Amino acid sequence: MTSPPDFPPLRTERLILRVLRAEDATALHRLVNDWEVAKNLARVRYPYELARAEEWVRSTWAQIAAGDAWHLAIVGEEDGSEGPVERLVGCVALTLDSDRKQAELGYWVGRKFWGHGVATEAAAALCRWALETLGLTGIHASALKDNARSAAVLQRVGLQPAGEAMQTFISRGGPMPVRLFRAGREALLAPPPETPRVEKPILLVAAVALVDADGRVLLARRPEGKPLAGLWEFPGGKVKPGESPEAALIRELKEELDIDVSESCLAPFTFASHGYEAFHLMMPLYLCRKWGGTIRPVEGQALAWVRPQQMGGYAMPPADKPLVAMLLDFL
Ligand SMILES: Nc1nc2c([nH]c(=O)n2[C@@H]2O[C@H](COP(=O)(O)OP(=O)(O)OP(=O)(O)O)[C@@H](O)[C@H]2O)c(=O)[nH]1
């Protein structure tokens, strides 16, 4: 096919799901040719060349025209000087099984758009359309065992765990263990339960309130490209396997701020326990008043010395709110 087939776009609260266009290939290539995205996709070769993106866009047209599969662009609208401008954020797809009664759900979202519920919103809308229009009896999907974020999306859409299997991932160069999910038509069309049970991994992050002689605390701004970019947080980072929280902090403080801290100067203070979309954060917060060297934003991050009373003026991750309240009482 040389032009996109007719398919009326599906609209959700924030997104448009529409047929891919030839001119989407450039943006698509940029978003998929990212290891963090490609590594979760079974049928994508990495590095992913632009020519493959162009060829793939055209192949989706033939599949829609034949009624075999619906690979749609997930598009957001942004304000431009001449009205709304479309921006490709990902793709969502349903592919009919050979019995044409059930379909496989798939999706990906560009890394910079993670954490906003895009995949859930798009997948739920496409599933609803397919159940109502094609009369499907059920929908299934799989997610790599190390992709908790995707498993959480599938469960929010209403699919239930249905075992495990091995599946070939071209991006990873061979078979990989996946978790399977499925749901029947009735369950998918029923209103969602009040609190869907989502299995999340626990993420251990060590953080520190560095306190200066005036009782001010150092906050660092999360750089662009990381989840929760732009928010102010306590310096620290993920604890690596086999590492103690104190050792992780000493390492992170050297890497991020170029200072030397000894374990005896890290006083356990409190902790945050917070459920994020894809993981549950456990974050011990230490207090530290003594360090060697001069603080320097090694990663170019903005830094600010802030009194706890003034932290309300700094946008911080939701997990940090109770920590600020504790610092207010203590300092
Ligand atoms: N360091 C730090 N992380 C926090 C705070 N509050 C909070 O929710 N987090 C979360 O804890 C996680 C820390 O991960 P990170 O991305 O900073 O870890 P890292 O430095 O090891 O990053 P990397 O994986 O890019 O190397 C993020 O999901 C972050 O949003 C905080 O006050 N300080």
Which properties best describe this structure?
Aminopeptidase; alpha+beta; 8-stranded mixed beta sheet; elongated; binds 8-OXO-guanosine-5'-triphosphate; Nucleoside Triphosphate Pyrophosphohydrolase
Question: Overview of this structure, please?
Answer:
One of its GO terms (biological process) is DNA replication. Keywords: DNA damage, DNA repair, DNA replication, Hydrolase, Magnesium, Metal-binding, Mutator protein. This is 8-oxo-dGTP diphosphatase. It catalyses: 8-oxo-dGTP + H2O = 8-oxo-dGMP + diphosphate + H(+); 8-oxo-GTP + H2O = 8-oxo-GMP + diphosphate + H(+). Belongs to the Nudix hydrolase family. With 331 residues, the chain is an alpha+beta fold. It has two domains: 10-189, 3-Layer(aba) Sandwich (Aminopeptidase); 202-330, Nucleoside Triphosphate Pyrophosphohydrolase. The chain has helices at 25-32, 35-38, 50-66, 118-134, 148-157, 185-189, 245-257, 321-330, and strands at 10-11, 15-19, 69-80, 83-96, 102-109, 138-144, 160-169, 174-184, 202-210, 217-221, 232-233, 236-238, 267-275, 280-288, 303-306. The strands form three sheets. The protein has an eight-stranded mixed beta sheet, with helices on both faces. α4 links the parallel β5 and β6. α1 packs across α3 and α4 packs across α5 (148-157). The chain is elongated, with a radius of gyration of 23 Å. The N and C termini lie far apart (68 Å). The model has no long low-confidence stretch (mean pLDDT 94). Bound molecules: 8-OXO-guanosine-5'-triphosphate. The site of 8-OXO-guanosine-5'-triphosphate has 15 residues, from β9, β12 and β14.
